[in-house]
Amino acid sequence: MLCHLEQHGLVDYAAALELQRERVAQRKAGTISDTLILLEHPHVYTLGRNAQKENMLVSEEFLASRGAQVFHTDRGGDVTYHGPGQLVGYPILDLTRHRRDISWYMRSLEEVFIRTAQDYGIEAGRSAGAAGVWVGNDKLTAMGVHLSRWVTSHGFALNVDTDLRYFEWIVPCGLQGKGVTSLAKLLGHPVKMEGATERVVEHFGAVFGLEVEAIEESIKLKN
User: Fold this and answer.
1) Could you identify which of 8, 60, 158, 169 might form a hypothetical disulfide with 87, taking C-beta atoms 3.0 to 4.6 angstroms apart as the criterion?
2) Among 17, 9, 33, which Cα is nearest to 155's?
3) Nearest alpha-carbon partner for 162 in 75, 80, 51
4) Which positions are catalytic?
């Protein structure tokens, strides 16, 4: 099966939400193939449907003073951070053409990043009761998804060379006593986004049995 790959660079979160809505509607209508959107966001904190207020350790006004936006979303999960140096992916997949099983979908997404970490010589895995991919007690890849008529949206965030200090103002994913890490921190040197992206795309195609084909797309940033 074919999967279109859209790479958009640095995109405001609101613009990315609108792009997802458009692609979900198109996928439901059958006018596009499965699609993987890859991008980065300016500093932003997003709260999922299950977000708890106490997991925001500072006010929204404080975050705004640090140049970060705050958004409430319809994805699963609690609060997380997105920013430069983090590869964010929004798969728009019709699971009726794969497997109607949200647990299978989440485990498959996790497998993509377990394999990606292995490419860098990092042993990563799952943590019982906590979605995402972990290295020891630290989360490397966060995940939160939404399904509508079995079409997926939202997705994953891989910390490639992220400024991890921005996680200090939240309880990431609402998990007390857990940390956050990145490929760069684990390896002890900078990691190029381009190389990490290539590995993620390769493993995404392999895990989901998709032929990933890049297409030329662009969107206008909304400030």
Assistant:
1) 158
2) 17
3) 80
4) 173
Q: Bridge-partner residues for 188, per DSSP?
A: none
- Between CA 78 and CA 223 the distance in angstroms is 25
Q: What is residue 215's DSSP assignment?
A: -
Helix, strand or coil, per DSSP, at residue 188: coil
Instruction: Give the rounded percent of residues in the chain with a pLDDT score beyond 70.
Output: 96
Taken in order 42, 94, 116, 75, is the CA torsion positive or negative?
positive
Backbone angles phi, psi at 222, to 5 degrees: -110, 120
According to the model, what pLDDT value does residue 221 have? Answer: 41
| pLDDT per residue as tens digits for the range 205-221 | 999 999 999 986 544 44
Instruction: Judge whether 13 and 218 are in contact, CB under 8 Å.
Output: no
| C-beta atoms surrounding 70 within 10 Å | 16
Token digits of residue 31: 């006018």
**C-alpha torsion sign, points 53, 124, 3, 199:** positive
